[in-house]
Amino acid sequence: MFDPLSYSDLNSSKAFINNLNRKKILPDYKINRKYSGLYLETIELYRKYYFYRGDKIKLVYSDEFEADDYLQPILNKIQDDSKIAIVSTDHDWSWAISDKICLINKDWENPFTKKEFKQIYQFDPTYTSIILYKSLFGDKSDNISGAIFTKKAKFLYPDGIKLLCLKFLNYININNIYIDDFIKEFKTAVHHKIQNKTSKTPFDELYLQLKINDLKLPIIQTLFTNISIVRSQLENKNIDDMIHCNPENPTTNSIVHQSIYGVKFSNLFGKI
C-alpha cells in the first residue's frame, strides 16, 4: 500500500496533493512529508510487476484515499481462514493483529506482537485506542498537533496528564468502547453531573481535564478534528469499485520482466 501521489508533479512538496479530504480539515496535513526519487521508482516497479499477474493479484486504488484507509475494508473482505501478513513498520496497523493476522516489521521469523506494542506505548493496540492516542498526543510525521500538547496547552496540565491519558486508553480497551461510542458519550456528557460523582472513571477524569481547559483553548475542537483526520475515511464502506484485477497476459508479463530486469525470466526459471 502506498499513499496517493501527484501524477503531474512528483516534487516532494506536492506528494499528497490528491488527498483533498483531509486537507480540507487540516490544510497543513503532511505538509512536511518528503520522498526521494528512489522511493517513487520503487513503487513504479512494484506496480508494473503486479499489473498483469492474473486474477490472483488484486489491485486496489483510488486517488481520493490513503493507504491507511484501505486496511480495514480489505481485511473485512477476507472472510476465510487465510493467514494474513501485513508488511509494514507503521505501528498504527497493530490494531489488526490477531490469530490469523500478523505484522511484519523486522523479519518473517519475528512478527511484531501486541505485547511489544504495549511495552512501547503502555496500552493494547485496538482500532479505537490508536485513533484516540494519535488524536490526544498528535503525530509529528503527519503534522498533527496533539489535543493535549499544543504549545500553550501543555502548560495548563499537571505532570500526570500523560498517565491519565494512558489510563483512559486502557479503560477504553477493557470496556470495548468503539470510537463512535466514545464520541457520543463525550458529546452528551454533563459536566456538573460528572464533577459531582463520588467515584470517577478514567473517562470522567479525562473529560473534566479537557472540559476545564477548553475554556481557555480549543482543546476539544482539536481532539475531534484529529479524530476526523486519523480514523479511516473508508471505514465500513464498500470498496468493490476500487478493486481491479487484470487478466493474465504472458506477453505483457514478459515485456515487463525484460524492462525491469533486462532478461526473459522464462529463460532462467521456465514458465512463470
Brief summary of the model shown:
The chain has one domain (12-35, 58-244). Helix content is 44%, strand content 8%.
Describe this structure in words.
The two termini are 24 Å apart. It is elongated and about 75 Å long. It has helices at residues 20-25, 37-51, 67-77, 114-121, 127-137, 161-174, 179-188, 191-195, 202-213, 219-230, 250-261, 265-269; strands at 59-60, 84-87, 101-107, 110-112, 138-139, 144-145, 243-244. The chain is mainly alpha-helical and 272 residues long. The strands form three sheets. A three-stranded mixed sheet has the order 2-3-4. It has one domain (12-35, 58-244).
Largest sheet: 3 strands, mixed
Structural class: mainly alpha
Please state the average pLDDT score: 80
Give the topology string: H per helix, E per strand: HHEHEEEHHEEHHHHHEHH
Strand order of the biggest β-sheet: 2-3-4
Shape: elongated
Let me know the number of strands: 7
What is the beta-strand fraction? 5-15%
Distance between the termini: 24 Å
